[in-house]
Amino acid sequence: LIASHKTGLHDIAGLAYSKSNSLYAVDFAWIKTADGGLFRLDSDGKEGVSTVKIASLDKPSALAVGADGAIYVTVFGTAKKDAKEKPGTVVKITGKL
Coil, strand or helix: which one is 67? Predict the structure, then answer.
């Protein structure tokens, strides 16, 4: 073990570095899924990290950074009662993150 950092997140389901070398995490937040989303993990310069919420997402499960620099996140979602469509999606997040 080289390092262990508290993030304040609940259930980190995936990590990825962006082209700009920023570290991102998706938090499933199983106990309180409304807290889930995509977060940037910023170094505090003292062996710790702070989190910046980029987007609220309904049960995110994985992420990847595309060749275009966008972050792609798979989301389980929540099925609506009697819905015929499945709630899973892939979300593309762009812009200055």
Answer: coil
Asked if 53 contacts 29 with a C-beta cutoff of 8 angstroms, the reply is no
Write the CB contacts of 11 (distance below 8 Å, at least 6 apart in sequence).
27, 28, 29, 30
Q: Are 9 and 51 in contact (CB under 8 A)?
A: yes
Summarised one tens digit per residue, pLDDT across range 6-59 is 899 999 999 999 999 999 999 999 999 999 999 999 987 777 899 999 999 999
For residue 41, give the nearest of 62, 58, 25 by alpha carbon: 25
Amino acid present at 40: R
Q: Three-state SS across 44-74?
A: CCCCCEEEEEEEECCCEEEEEECCCCCEEEE
CA separation for the pair 34, 61 (Å, rounded): 14
Predicted TM-score (pTM) of the model is: 0.91
Q: Tell the residue number behind the tokens 């812009």, with chain if given.
A: 95
